[in-house]
Specification:
The protein is of the alpha+beta class. It has 4 helices and 4 strands. It folds into 3 domains: 63 residues, no CATH class; 35 residues; 107 residues. The two termini are 66 Å apart.
């Protein structure tokens, strides 16, 4: 029977163990490491030199078999990418939680799509009422502005000085009209946002109801 030939790794590990004061099958007090230097040479030892402390290294047992691994330290770019991915995952989880809460609200608030249409139209109609009131205020302010402007023009034609208070009233009335008009623009935008939101909610409500229906059908088939 031919004698068993030992692999080079076995010889290297055995030599190292002997150098450390133990036999090939002895148990070391600490782990044995294997690492590769910048020239590609393999090294073994119970301590890793400081210059290789951040790179990957294998952990070997007393027989030279790999039993673990210490990962290389991550570069700043790798750490930054990890943080980016973690933040991305957190944002996705936040959005998923918000969507789930919104889905529960839809199902708890509305029984049918018709209910949603009525709610949408009611909110839009309420804003229409506020816009009509604001329009009436604009008409009133414009009539007042016309009267103030006419008074100022009459004074100027008569060669008299227009009082500062009258100038201030004219400027204030114009600013009031601008605020009213801006309010109406904002309310029209709010109505459009409501339409878009309800359009998306109705689609989602339809999907949720369809999923509930399919889930119920599958339960009956079990």
């Amino acid at each position: 029977m031919k004698p068993h030939r030992r692999r080079p790794l076995d010889f290297a590990v055995a030599a190292l163990l002997t150098a450390l004061g133990g036999a090939q099958n002895s148990v070391l007090a600490g782990p044995l490491y294997k690492w590769v230097d910048e020239e590609g040479k393999v090294h073994y030892g119970d301590r890793v030199p400081p210059e290789y402390a951040n790179q990957e290294r294998k952990i070997l047992n007393e027989r030279g078999l790999e039993v673990g691994k210490v990962e290389a330290a991550k570069t700043p770019a790798e750490l930054a990418e990890e943080r980016r991915l973690a933040e991305q995952r957190r944002e996705q989880e936040r959005l998923a939680a918000e969507q789930a809460a919104h889905d529960r609200m839809l199902l708890a608030t509305f029984a049918t799509e018709e209910d949603m249409v009525l709610a949408r139209d009611g909110r839009i109609s309420a804003i229409d009422g506020m816009i009509r009131i604001t329009r009436a205020r604009i008409d009133k302010a414009e009539r007042r502005l016309e009267d103030l402007t006419r008074r100022a023009a009459n004074l100027e034609r008569a060669g008299r000085v227009v009082p500062k208070r009258l100038h201030d009233d004219i400027d204030g009335t114009r600013q009031q009209i601008e605020r009213f008009e801006a309010y109406i623009v904002a309310k029209r935008k709010e109505q459009e946002d409501i339409r878009k939101q309800f359009e998306a909610d109705i689609r989602r409500f339809r999907e949720l109801k369809e999923a509930q229906k399919k889930g119920g059908e599958q339960a009956l088939l079990r």
